[in-house]
């Protein structure tokens, strides 16, 4: 297990939080240290992507914020979407950021220049794009949408290569979730109400079907053969491809509330529950065991999390300071003082000091207005102006006919 990891958490309360583990001496007793707290979004954070030095967050305010963790500053704001940003994914070669939104658009943004190089405004027949997962080769990607179609994207040519119709796949229900590639890209997962399927990319068939003791919410691959699934009951399900195709997964204790997200990096597993609880585990792949090494409550409701590898910065670690130095800095109570009933501090207003010129005194004294001494007046708080919403881009309306693209045929997948 590596402690050179920073935990990045997005919350319903619009906060983006960072934590690190400190070891006071005993490896089994780790402590959380908050590294930053930022509140740039004007709505809850719905999606998060972390790769290399970059952190991207998407929210219900239709915006995407990009942070450079080398300088720990905000690098860019993307305003291309006109709906909630449901999913974000960096390509493994770190050349593009893929984003999907409730407006039906799927956009590929160039990393560095942050310009949109591809915008498919009807990626799923105009319905919302809910999930995107990029293949480790960075040449393929999978996407799910409200049309219940699984799209396979050729990222080299920038178009859909194949479509798989999931409407007849009754085991996956009306909204398949947990779309994720395995580390080597040979398998990917899909989930239904009480079931997780592992698909083989070579044969385009299901090689593992596991019924879970609850609804699957999120998934993280530990190796090419093992993955962990977070359930709405708070438990974790360990699924291995070494078991029989229909074998039940191994159920493990996790949280008392729903598991909202989980991430795995360098032998360290981090899980977050809807109650605000964050846990760090060490994984034993051979025995299929999890050992809890740290736990805290952030007093917010997590929606997503990611892990930042600090070893990439070498000895020149980024400074532990707030991401943005604003006049109004969002502050959170320290995790050591967080209680069950504590609340987030309310943001205060701006305070200004104004000076008025006493014109009558100036006339009597025979001085020019600019030479008179200013007279201080009382201090009054200045109310914050409502945030400006970005105008919607109507230039890509449905009035213009779309160019026809060559797609693969839609395959009707039937129950086995």
What does this structure look like?
This protein has 416 residues and is mainly beta. 38% of the residues are buried. A hairpin with a 4-residue loop joins strand 14 and strand 15. Helix content is 2%, strand content 45%. The two termini are 40 Å apart. The chain is built from one helix and 33 strands.
Summarize this structure briefly:
The protein has one helix at 359-365; strands at residues 5-11, 16-22, 31-38, 45-51, 54-59, 64-68, 73-78, 85-90, 96-101, 106-110, 116-120, 129-134, 140-145, 149-154, 159-165, 177-181, 187-191, 195-200, 205-211, 216-221, 226-231, 236-240, 250-252, 259-265, 268-273, 277-284, 289-297, 302-309, 350-352, 355-356, 375-376, 380-382, 410-412. The protein has 416 residues and is mainly β.
What low-confidence regions span 5 or more consecutive residues with pLDDT below 50?
321-385, 387-410
Distance between the termini: 40 Å
**Envelope shape:** globular
Percent helix range? under 10%
Report the biggest beta sheet as strand number plus sense, adding barrel if it closes: 5 strands, mixed
Sequence of strands across the biggest β-sheet: 12-13-14-15-33
Q: Which structural class should the secondary elements be placed in? A: mainly beta
How many DSSP helices?
1
DSSP strand (E) fraction?
Answer: 35-45%
Mean pLDDT metric: 81
What is the radius of gyration?
25 Å
The protein's oligomeric status is single chain
Please give the number of β-strands.
33
